[in-house]
């Protein structure tokens, strides 16, 4: 008998055109409360900087607010871009969150800048930092969060002894291999970088070494979701993220666009085809259709958890999509992948 696969949410605190940062924050607050009431496993916030359509730059600050509004749902970063930060500061921030909301905090880590080079420089990120420093930064962060401070002169307070669980995020085979070697859960960004999904899962599992945190591989995968009363309505709302990705490809830093009736009046056929390939694991349509699509995704990939983002411009429709996915209880783990 297979058990349901946990469903979680990745929130970017989207800022829509003609919407304010305050509105985006209020939407994130509503998402957190609804996610808990709908029994989602966890809610993560993504770290992006200098993007007109994303309000989750100060990830730990927003998480502190969401923690105060909820009681039980796990909260975390999806993720902290570790090269942007000193490991000690991250340990203190997430140690503080764990002290406020014990047993509810996750710390997802990535190595991308989450922004453009100029903003990276403004963050005082070392643009010449060798990628080889990333594994040692992760291990240093683990030491700050562990009980074993030894004779170290540097101590994270809060943080030491909190054992906040780490998750490694990535869209590459490098991240998959590293997560396996470190014995950490791995979350693959298939919602926007789908090409290496299956290879990454295989490499992660092949390289997995049990750790103090995890005794067997644990794979999460990202999926975008738009649920509506009809396929036409879902396609209409999905046009916002299609336009958003087109803007990114054109180098336009813009808020999330409002949906449009005919995407081909706004994007070329080649643009739509290219973007749809990038977003090929997105699930959209009626509740029955989306439930079937999610089940097929889990069956094909064997993932242990699906983390969904809801790139919907309209607040009411975004919350309705989340509510409807929260009612989907028949998405089961693939039998062939059971331990």
From TrEMBL:
GO terms for cellular component: cytosol. SUPFAM superfamilies: Bacterial luciferase-like. Gene3D superfamilies: Luciferase-like domain. It comes from Salinimonas iocasae. GO terms for molecular function: oxidoreductase activity, acting on paired donors, with incorporation or reduction of molecular oxygen. To bacterial alkanal monooxygenase alpha and beta chains. PANTHER family: LUCIFERASE-LIKE MONOOXYGENASE. This is Luciferase-like monooxygenase. It comes from the Bacteria. Residues 7-304 form the Luciferase-like domain.
